[in-house]
Amino acid sequence: MDATRHDAFFLDLDGTLIETTPTPDEARATPRVRDVLFRLARATDGATMIVSGRAIAKVDELLGLRLPVAGQHGAEMRFLNPAFDDIRIGISGYDRLLARCAGIARTCGDARVEAKNPTIALHLSRADPAFDRLLQKVGRLAAASHGRLACIVAHNVVELRPADIHKGMAVAGAAMFGPFGGRRPIFAGNDTPDIDGFRAAEARGGFGIAVGTPQPGARHLLASPDALLDALDAVAGSA
Ligand SMILES: [Mg+2]
Fold it and tell me: What ranges do the domains of the chain cover?
């Protein structure tokens, strides 16, 4: 099967292509990750997109490679196609929201606020006894937003994002643009925020691949980022 001509790849980064680390700043991409992504992007004529909770600038820094990226769960999208403008979604009252989150963080152990605009991440180890309190308080903030904000929890992080922005939207959005349009979407991810991506891929005739642990909506399971790299390597190599 000539997968590379007909498929579009949407790949989460942390825990999917690279191993998760206690804090996001410790994460590193190995030369193999860069090599496989570079070759996959070439083999798919550019239909390879990183879909991450990280901001695009952080994804670039971590990978040392410029690829199409849906950053902040799709609130920022960069296609690397001169025919399509980059997308950046904003929310009103961001500074006020950020101040509220900073206030919450001060009452929750070592929680650290990351302002990405429009999303806000509150980083804290799940092993920290204050994690549940952090989740509860951020959840209340989202609940009081009248449906404007969603609270999502992933590995050592609680995040606030605009409610209508999620990784499934990033897949649907990319499908409107070349070279992603008309291809079968394959979404690989490892965590709760990726579930929307799996479902969007499935709804468009593609499928999801969970990495590490089974995830709702993902049809396939691979044991680790290394196993995913092996599979992507084979696809890139067959081009
Ligand atoms: Mg992940």
Answer: 3-88+165-237, 94-162
CATH 3.30.70 fits 94-162, yes or no: yes
Measured in Å, residue 189 CA sits from the centre of ligand 1 at: 6
Distance from the alpha carbon of residue 15 to the mean position of ligand 1, in angstroms: 5
Give the distance (Å) from ligand 1 centre to CA of residue 191: 5
- Model confidence at 190, pLDDT cuts 50, 70, 90, reads very high
CA of 150 to the centre of ligand 1 (A): 18
Question: 12 CA distance to ligand 1 centroid (A)?
Answer: 6
What distances in angstroms separate CA 13 from CA 34, 43, 101, 133, one per listed residue? 12, 19, 25, 27
Mean pLDDT calculated for residue range 60-72: 96
From the candidate CATH numbers 3.40.50.1000, 3.10.490.10, 3.30.720.210, 1.10.260.40, the one assigned to the domain spanning 3-88+165-237: 3.40.50.1000
Nearest to 142 by CA among 157, 161, 117: 161
- pLDDT value of residue 238: 61
Q: Is 30 left (phi over 0), alpha (psi -120 to 50) or beta?
A: beta
Expressed in angstroms and rounded, the spacing between residue 14 Cα and the centre of ligand 1 is 4
Q: Give the distance (Å) from ligand 1 centre to CA of residue 70.
A: 13
Q: How many Å lie between the centroid of ligand 1 and the Cα of residue 237? A: 25
Question: Using CB atoms within 10 A of its CB, is residue 125 exposed (0-12), middle (13-18) or buried (19+)?
Answer: middle
